[in-house]
UniProtKB/TrEMBL annotation:
It comes from the Bacteria. InterPro entries: AA/rel_permease1, APC_superfamily. GO terms for molecular function: transmembrane transporter activity. It is found in: Cell membrane. Pfam families: AA_permease_2. The chain crosses the membrane at residues 12-31, 43-63, 84-109, 115-137, 149-170, 190-214, 226-250, 276-301, 322-339, 345-366, 378-397, 403-423. It is a multi-pass membrane protein. GO terms for cellular component: plasma membrane. This is APC family permease. Keywords: Cell membrane, Membrane, Transmembrane, Transmembrane helix.
Amino acid sequence: MPRSLKRTVSTPLLYFFILGDVLGAGVYVLVGSVAEASGGAVWLPLAVALGLATLTAASYAELATKYPRAGGSAHYATRALGPAAGSLVGFCMLAAGVVSVGALARAFAGDYLQALVSAPTAVVIIVFLVALALLNIRGIKESLTANVAASLIELGGLVLIIGLGAWLLLRGDADPGRLTDIGTPQHGPVLAVLAGTVLAFYSFVGFETSVNLAEEVRDPRRSYPAALFGALLTAGVVYVSVGVVAAAAVPTDELARSSGPLLEVVRRAGGVPERLFSVIALVAVANGALLTGIMASRLAYGMARDGLLPAVLTRLLPGRRTPWVAVVVTTSVSIALALTGEVAVLAETLVLLLLVVFTAVNCSVLLERRHPVDTDHFRAPTVVPWLALASCLYLFTRIEAAIWARGLILVGLGVGLAVVNTLRSRRSADRQSHDRSRGADVLDPS
């Protein structure tokens, strides 16, 4: 049975994977939250968040091109910090991915779908996630080809918003003066921008999932940096542009109150059916669930191959060479989470879990520089991972105590897995040492 994944992912497919995962469904509600936190200058926190995300992305680019393996963050932490850290990081990534897929499935079955057709929530969740799992099992190339189409629809919806906002500006129905309005009644300009940046940073996460595809990329050392930074730049330009037009077109208070801030732009511009955005949002949610499901299954496969999870998760489908057992297991857990209806509470901990991962990855890239490899790979300037590490530590301080309380439960489970794996590794090492000692005694009975 083959023990490696099939290299079929080209640079364009990888670019659209990252772009689709970064754009995601969150952008359709993000602008209002940032406006509430920072004021009318929504574009500024988005631009700052892009810079912070790019710092950590550089660490991922270095490690993914140095060690192109499916385990991603968990593999890097294992190499640099040991199996216990690898277990913890892998579990945090896996937990974030599985919960995210469940939350997205719940969102898919919610108001956006109900605006178009009435269907039982449980049935929609099961059919939706089973369909995505079958697409994932069929093959990474097919999954990413579907992602290209979905990403283009997501991107097209956001470009439409930019166009409508520009039209409002041209006809004099928008107020460009709001673009320099920084600060809120609660916070001055600096604290307001920082508060908005924390929220905006959430919108750029997703790029980290792509490292789990490194083993399936045809030429990861050349393709990965180009696809990663290209996708982040594209997403950043789109986000900042959306922030500009939305803030100019809609009064800040109204934007902050709306649960669908981009629909406010559509209503003010006119000429575009509002139902269109229900369809676009559904595509965005489905695409996010597909990409996150791919990440979770590849991460589970990579961790199992490193001995951090049960070996059954390494089984590949003959011919397709996709990790079908990992897909089935991660999808089953996501279905269970989605059906319980408790994913909204757990979803708030995703950023905390990812900051644990980002901190470990930024430490790993610095520690692994003590171990050069023979092949060429991307190398970030030394100051970049240090700045990325500092940004993660700062963002930790901006997380509310209630989210810490919830997140520490999941982190505690990860620590438990790390302890079990460490004890198992020590027992295995002790057995090997004992066997070697017995072998020496047999060879030298004196």
